[in-house]
Write a structure and sequence with these properties.
By secondary structure, this protein is α+β, with helices and mostly antiparallel strands. It has two domains: 221 residues, Orthogonal Bundle (Endonuclease III, domain 1); 115 residues, Nucleoside Triphosphate Pyrophosphohydrolase. Strands 1, 2, 3, 4, 5, 6 and 7 form a seven-stranded mixed sheet that branches. It is elongated and about 80 Å long. It starts with a helix and ends in a 6-residue tail after the last helix. The mean pLDDT is 95. The chain binds a DNA duplex (11 and 11 nucleotides) through helix 2, helix 3, helix 6, helix 8 and helix 9.
DNA sequence: CACACGTGGGA
DNA sequence: TTCCCAAGTGT
C-alpha cells in the first residue's frame, strides 16, 4: 500500500512538472532569489488573486526596495500602499516583521525555516514558500491549490479543515514534493491548481485523470469538502463627516475590528436601520447637518456593511477630540480608507489620488 | 479550533 | 443576483 502510494506520488510529481513546463506563467516575483521580495509577493498573494496583487507588488517593491526601507516606513504609508487590497492585518504584520528582521536578524532576511516561520504574518504555507523559492529548502507548500489537487487525486473526502484530514494532506504534500527542486515543484503544483485543477475542474484536458481517485469515482465536484459558511452579520454605519472650511475630520480605526489601522469619519453604529434624526440625537459638538441621499453597501467575508453619510458643518468653537484629526481635502489622499469610505469620497469629488 | 479578516472577479 | 471564492494567519 505504501509502495503504491509512493509510486503514485512519483507519477504525480513528474506529470505536474511536465505540465508546468508546457504552461509557463511569467510573473514579476518569479525567477528571483531575493527573499525579501519573495516574502513580499507571498504576503500580497495570500487569499488574493494574482491579477489583483500584481500592481501592488510592483508598487511595494518600488516604494520599499529593501526590508530596511519597509521597516523605516510609517505604518500609515504602508497601509496607504496597501489600500484596496484588503486583509490589512497582512500589511501591519509585514511592517512589524520588517522591524523584527532589522532588530533580531540584523537586517538580513532569515535563511532557515524556523526563523522565517517566526516572522509575524508568516505561517506554515508562507514559510515553506520562502524557504523553497529563495533558499531551495525542501519544504512542501500546502495552500488552497495543493489541498484541492491532493484531496482529489487521493480521494480524500473528509472536511479539509479537520486536523486528521489536514495532517494526511500535509503528509501527501511531503511525499509528492520534489526534494531536488523544491522551489520549482512548489510553483508547478500551485500553477497546476490555479489553471488546471481549478475549483470548477477542467478534467477533459487534465493529464492526471488516470491517476485521480475523485475522477474515477465521479466525485470531483464534491472534493475538496468544506464546511458551510456562516450567514453574514449585517451592520449599519452612520458616518458624520464633520468639516470646517476645507478640513475634514478623520480618525484611525484602532479597535479589534474590521479595517484596523485605516481612517474613517465620526462613526455611529446602529444595530439596525434607523432614521437620521434618531442617529444624530447626541452629537459631541454643535453643527449644521446635511444628509446624503446615497447609501453604500459592502459585502465582506463575514459581514455586510451598510453605510450612510451626513455632512456636519461645525458651527461653534469646539472641535472634535479623542484621536480626530482635521485634514485638508487636498491631503486626504495621504490616508488609507476602507473601500466604502473611499467610494463616498470619490462620489463627493474629493481628490484621493 | 472556529472564527474574523477585504476586495474584485467569474460563473 | 448570488455564490464561491484567491498563493492563509492570528486568536
Amino acid at each position: 500500500m505504501e509502495t503504491a502510494n509512493r509510486n503514485k506520488s512519483e507519477t504525480i510529481r513528474k506529470k505536474i512538472q511536465q505540465w508546468s513546463e508546457e504552461n509557463p506563467r511569467p510573473m514579476p516575483w518569479r525567477s528571483i532569489k531575493n527573499p525579501y521580495l519573495i516574502w513580499l509577493s507571498e504576503i500580497i498573494l495570500q487569499q488574493t488573486r494574482v491579477m489583483q496583487g500584481w500592481d501592488y507588488y510592483l508598487k511595494f517593491s518600488e516604494s520599499y526596495p529593501t526590508v530596511k526601507d519597509l521597516a523605516d516606513a510609517h505604518i500609515d504609508d504602508v497601509l496607504k500602499n496597501w489600500e484596496g487590497l484588503g486583509y490589512y492585518q497582512r500589511a501591519r504584520n509585514m511592517h512589524a516583521a520588517a522591524q523584527q528582521i532589522v532588530s533580531t536578524f540584523e537586517g538580513r532576511f532569515p535563511d532557515d525555516y524556523d526563523s522565517i516561520r517566526s516572522l509575524k504574518g508568516v505561517g506554515d504555507y508562507t514559510a515553506s514558500a520562502i524557504a523553497s523559492f529563495a533558499y531551495g529548502l525542501p519544504h512542501a507548500v500546502v495552500d488552497g491549490n495543493v489541498i484541492r489537487i491532493l484531496t482529489r487525486l487521493f480521494g480524500i473526502s473528509g472536511i479539509i479543515t479537520s486536523a486528521p484530514v489536514r495532517r494526511s494532506i500535509d503528509a501527501l504534500a511531503d511525499e509528492v514534493l520534489d526534494k531536488d527542486r523544491p522551489g520549482k515543484h512548489n510553483q508547478a503544483i500551485m500553477d497546476f491548481g490555479a489553471m488546471q485543477c481549478t475549483p470548477a475542474p477542467r478534467c477533459e484536458s487534465c493529464p492526471l485523470t488516470a491517476d485521480c481517485s475523485a475522477f474515477k469515482d465521479n466525485l470531483v465536484g464534491q472534493i475538496p469538502l468544506k464546511k458551510k459558511p456562516r450567514p453574514k452579520r449585517e451592520r449599519f454605519f452612520y458616518y458624520i463627516v464633520f468639516h470646517q472650511e476645507e478640513d475634514l475630520y478623520i480618525k484611525k480605526r484602532s479597535q479589534k475590528d474590521v479595517w484596523e489601522g485605516l481612517y474613517e469619519f465620526y462613526l455611529i453604529e446602529q444595530p439596525e436601520v434607523r432614521d437620521w434624526h434618531q442617529v444624530v440625537e447626541h452629537l459631541p459638538i454643535p453643527c449644521d447637518l446635511e444628509y446624503e441621499t446615497a447609501h453604500y453597501k459592502q459585502t465582506l467575508s463575514h459581514q455586510i456593511i451598510h453605510a450612510r453619510f451626513a455632512l456636519a458643518a461645525i458651527t461653534g468653537d469646539r472641535l472634535l477630540k479623542e484621536g480626530y484629526s482635521a485634514v485638508n481635502k487636498k491631503k486626504m489622499r495621504n490616508f488609507a480608507f476602507p473601500k466604502i469610505v473611499d467610494c463616498y469620497l470619490r462620489d463627493k469629488g474629493v481628490n484621493l489620488n
